[in-house]
Known about the structure:
The relative contact order is 0.22. The chain has a four-stranded antiparallel sheet with strand order 1-2-4-3. The protein contains six helices and four strands; from the N terminus they run ααβαβαβααβ. It has helices spanning 3-11, 25-36, 55-69, 94-111, 122-127, 129-137, and strands at 47-52, 81-88, 115-119, 144-153. The model has no long low-confidence stretch (mean pLDDT 95). By secondary structure, it is α+β, with helices and mostly antiparallel strands.
Amino acid sequence: xxxxxxxxxxxxxxxxxxxxxxxxxxxxxxxxxxxxxxxxxxxxxxxxxxxxxxxxxxxxxxxxxxxxxxxxxxxxxxxxxxxxxxxxxxxxxxxxxxxxxxxxxxxxxxxxxxxxxxxxxxxxxxxxxxxxxxxxxxxxxxxxxxxxxxxxxxxxxxxxxxxxxxxxxxxxx
Length: 173
């Protein structure tokens, strides 16, 4: 492996504060494309990637996510873009498939100088009637299940140092 790829993996950090600065469409397109090259079970490509830049839907998805948490804060930390990853719920590997998509996009974003954080509760959102209504509005199948999301944007502050790796993280047998 090239040293720059290992460095990319080692330096990516979750970002929980974003500038309001717009993410250029070329950068967003590159991040989204990286997600499409993630491995999927049997090569079936079960995930669907939804990039939300429209302020109306950005606000709506944040509200639905916050309701699952029992909160009224922005679960996406003010990021200008929210990328949802849903997948065909009938695929036995839909969670794994979607997780690989999220990881690819997070690493691509970091390579482009953008920040991300993985956000949960999309499963609860899209299993609910409100989530199903959004899927209908977006003309997407209601069989899609939420896997996760990433908040995407320019970090508002520097990243924390890398935490030490735990003892016995790797066991060789």
